[in-house]
Amino acid sequence: MPRIAEARPPAEPSSQEQKARQRRILRAAASLATERGLDRVQMQDVAKEAGVAIATLYRYFPSKTHLFTAVMAEQVEQLDGLARPPRPGQDPVEAVCELLLRSSRKLLSRPLLASAMMQSNVQANAATVSEAIRIDKLMQDAVLRMLGIDSPTARDIRLVSLVIECWYGMLSSALNGRLSMADVEEEIRLACGLLLAARSNA
């Protein structure tokens, strides 16, 4: 289980060198978690793999919760980059389904890393781990964009949030061996079809 996030805010990299150092840390953490899983990743091992001092690692990431929530944010940022408004004639709900399915396959291809990210995101307190809020916003914006909703209503936002929460639950169940990939696909399509049918631009 990741250590509970500390109260102090993590440092924000400002220079290109600092940003490159932070990216090395995230890559090192992802690589180690892919091989070992969350519990067997030690912060000192991440620092060594990234070639940084342990104090530097803790300055940017005060806990493993901060670290692996940031790793997940980086993954979700890639997902956000794939989200495009619907093409003429394209079913936007089907487009959302396909995006979530592609992302599910990618995440589940590295189950130990996926589990590390999901556990950390669940543990993250929004008041102290800002990346948790960024993950939610990136996911929400990606789905709204694919639905072609430029000015979402409060109900639109709630419906999209429910779809995302369902998706997280399906991923967790798949990682725990409770759902197969075929089950995940079926349930994603069902959840999107039921929930997004009530959106404002349906």
Automatic annotation (TrEMBL):
PROSITE patterns, sorted: HTH_TETR_2 (PS50977)
Gene Ontology BP term (one): negative regulation of DNA-templated transcription
Keyword hit for Cell division: no
InterPro entries: Homeodomain-like_sf, HTH-type_TetR-like_transc_reg, HTH_TetR, KstR_C
Domain of life assignment: Bacteria
Keywords for the protein's UniProt record, in alphabetical order: DNA-binding, Transcription, Transcription regulation
Annotated DNA-binding residue span(s): 42-61
Domain named HTH tetR-type: residues: 19-79
Organism of provenance: Saccharopolyspora kobensis
Protein name listed in UniProt: Transcriptional regulator, TetR family
GO MF term list: DNA-binding transcription factor activity; transcription cis-regulatory region binding
Tagged with keyword Transcription regulation: yes
